[in-house]
Amino acid sequence: MTDSTQLTASAGDFTFRPLDALTDAELVHGWVTHPKAAFWLMQEATLPEVEREYMSIAAAEHHDAFLGLYRGTPAFLMERYDPAHVELVGLYEPLPGDVGMHFLTAPSDVRVPGFTRGVITAVMRELFADPATERVVVEPDVRNTAVHALNEAVGFRPETVIQKPEKEALLSFCTREQFEAAVRERELAI
After folding, report:
1. Whole-prediction pTM value?
2. pLDDT value at 5 more than 50
3. Quick one: which of 18, 66, 81, 132 could link to 100 by a disulfide (CB 3.0–4.6 Å)?
């Protein structure tokens, strides 16, 4: 992300394409091993390990990875998963229409105010573009206060703290209605 202009998070600024585990691995490796990605839990991953991780996701029936583009330039990563089969199995009672999500913005030397909020808003729009999605589920590390604030800004409500094998996580949910209300509220505030 090198654009230093004022961000206007219009829907057309953000696009998604399936992540290609082989051709995108080097780019994504730099993102997931960057110090700002500590909560992604891949700090020590080698390039072949990142390739294997995303090849595994590509082969999975209930997990997908996408490269997010900002004005045509790779700028973030999004993972979508079915929490009834991946990540949260046995840790909560999934409802029909639940979709799990992870996102990671690329490291940048240029700070663009509002960029990460624009990314998470675009991610949520993308997930809710599927009419079958009723509720988005996230499980960030309880220590990741920055992402908790972003989640709240787009309508997530914390439910409970859960213990996953790799972390203590804040299980949070956002319905389509909660997301739309948060977006409307932000637009009215502008």
Report:
1. 0.90
2. no
3. 81
